[in-house]
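pinned: reference chain
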Amino acid sequence: MLAAHDIDYRIYGEEMQYVDIELDPGETAMAESGAFMMMDEGIQMQTIFGDGSQKSGGGIMNKLFSAGKRLLTGESLFMTAFTNVGQGKKRVAFASPYPGKIIPLDLYALGGKVVCQKDAFLCAARGVSIGIEFQRRLGTGLFGGEGFIMEKLEGDGMAFVHAGGHVFERILLPGETLRIDTGCLVGYSKDIHYDIQFVGGIRNTLFGGEGVFFATLQGPGKVWIQTLPISRLASRILTYATTKRKEEGSILGGLGNLLDGDGR
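pinned: its structure tokens
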């Protein structure tokens, strides 16, 4: 018998998606603060300490430790539980925080564990444990950047994570290796071997325009990859917001700014 609540779901939208979860009477979905979008009457909201999983229910110190680890992944100490306390099926929906895709993860089919980037978790069935995964190798710890501290989703229920841009799945065969930018890695299944590797070459390091290190993943297992990490999107927006506007391809130059109301 499954330990986590057995929820049904449907994902809507393209660039700005939301997941609609159907709860039977007594079933509960857990979500990060700020993910809630809408719900039917008969669903009760309750803020709880930690992730609400059975693993974090062993005393106050265990709960403090479990919740405290979540701060390292950029998540809140608290989560919100949405429970169907009414009669019949009820629905609750959670929205993605920025353009991208919502990835449904059936943890039972994936061997009970998926490791994903911090901030990726959106919501899950009650009973799924949301913890922290430290990369223990020295090179990973010193230079891993976005890939050093990751989230760990464990259990046998459904979990949903969100990533930026287009998201796709890659299946690695035993011994097959994939090199990837650490920011583009969304997550991987439990049997994948993860490490950080130096790019190499002085010109690559100084002038390549990419990171000095990238992630190496070795199969067997599944890897989820995103085309637009939120850090890359934020960096590009910040660059445009803090630099003087360029007349990109405009023959009007400053006159163009005057015409569109941007002149000073």
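why pinned: The chain is about 15% helix and 40% strand. The chain has one domain: 8-242.
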